[in-house]
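Researcher: Here's my situation. A collaborator sent me these components and asked whether they could plausibly form a single complex. I don't have experimental data yet, so a predicted model of the whole assembly would be a useful starting point for our discussion.
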Amino acid sequence: MKKYFLLLLLFSILFVSCSNKDNTIEEEYTPIPYSLEVPELFQQKLIAPLIPTNNPLTEEGIALGKKLFFDKKLSKDNTQSCASCHNPRNSFTDSLRFSLGVDGLPGSRNSMPLFNLAWNFNDKFAWDGKELSLERQALEPVRNPIEMHSSWSNVTLRLQQDQEYPKMFLNAFGTERIDSALVTKAIAQFERTLISGNAKFDQYLLGNTSLSQQELNGFTIFMSEDKGDCFHCHGSDNNPLWTDNDFHNNGLDTSFNDLGLGSVTGDPNDNGKFKSPSLRNLVYTAPYMHDGRFSTLEEVINHYSEGLQNSSTIDPLMKKVSQGGVQLTPLEKADLKAFLITLTDDDFINNPSFQN
Amino acid sequence: MKKIIIICLFFGLNSCSQDRDISLSPVAITLNFAHSWGEDEISSSDFDELKFTNENEQTLSINRLRYVISEITLIHESGEPTVLNDYNLVDLTNEAGLSFTTSESILPGDYVSASFRFGFSNNLNIDGAYPDLNSALFNVPGLLGGGYHFMQLDGMYIDNNNQEAAYNYHVINAFDASNPNETVETSFSVNIGGLTIGSNTNINMKMDISEWFKNPNMWDLDEFDTNLMGNYDAQLLMNQNGSSVFDLVSITQ
């Protein structure tokens, strides 16, 4: 019995001294927790944003994620960063129809603006929902041959050899050993801070500004079931996201080159369905649709008004397809456009925390 | 000695839990929603196909079905009603909310009647008040009185030109644009009947979707397919047809 006791004592002493050592190396610094600055309307109207429990936001994690997001080391030949196709000046998309990767090759889809991603409640990203979580999404561009065309082993090696990164990872995650899981966690943290909630229309709803008659008329068209009927998919004064984050076929084509959601689910009833984009910041995000086919808002509105194409999976909310759509007058179209522009958030575009 | 302690403990615990049963601590109840077209049970896997025929012999599909229920009410033998503050969005498209356990609790015992409300009564149909329903874009535009959809049933049908056309059978609180101050109440109460609430009561309901097109008003989709939210008369007809859509299947304990 005594022997055991001695042994135990010995062990515990060993253990304590061990863990002490560990402490000095790994846990000398605790990152500072960060909470999102949630806009007033979001707080009033929406459920809480999604922050995964295994990747809580910290100031150090966000700062690291921002540096990584703008860092060209993530690409094969140091020519491209995430921001090359997700430029803060363009509401984190680019102005090309199809972005070019490091080898000058175009992809087949339009880059997507990045904001309010923590409110994408079903956590499915990309036009077809193929990326399940922001952390997993961020793995993809680095190794995509028509995007950054690198490999995670190259990228982590480069970051490991950098002067600053190992220390930043230590402060954010308690280890200097850099791997793809930590890189993508940091990037996802930064992405979750990209919040756009301060457009003219938000200020109008908060009672701080008024809208012109034309803008108000446009909002009415947006909200009228027998006019635009846009609200069933794109939000309203009660949903400041301006998207349902869901997948629909909004009548672009009679047959599909790109199957969209159908290529992910394998269900032919999902063919031609794509994620409804948010209507915030449209002034900065042209061209429009998953393939960037429309370069102006006029073209988009004409599409819904008289350009609808029928197909087997078209959404039943696309009415009067046989007449091409909801048939807005030129005046109604101009009003609708004026309203859409009130969803522009210049503070988001110019926010210094989001620039390189 | 040890044995005695264990035995004591065992009895102690046991009597405790019996005590609890006797002192009747409040319990949650679970409502389960199944769906059928006539006799045939359906799920989201039956969606998107033109496989249903309504009473008016029109062929149709269902692409989306969501509805909200609220105000679960139980009337005790003593005559005292208890209204639970819960509401639930049933979303058959995403198979969400099909089984719903109340967050509020009720004392076990015998109740002479129970019911829930399809949609929201006027005093609870508060514009923008429910963040989860806002996040699900279930709102009704302020132009039509605000508040929430009671049901969104969307699909396609074969119209009288033999072409596929869309229908949006959206049930809201009827709103008469020519008389906007007139308040009507088109949410309605669904009777469950008398029941005994035990520690794990499941109320199993079924919605027969075909009834929306049938009883008492035969629904002609050629006449009423889209833009029904602002159609006051259509909303009154929907309200009448709604009264026969729900059935109690069983209550399990």
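Model: Some features of this prediction you could bring to your collaborator: The interface with chain B takes residues 44-47, 119, 121, 220, 223-226, 231-233, 235-239, 241, 244, 269, 310, 313-322 of chain A (CB under 8 Å). The two ends of chain A are 65 Å apart (CA to CA).
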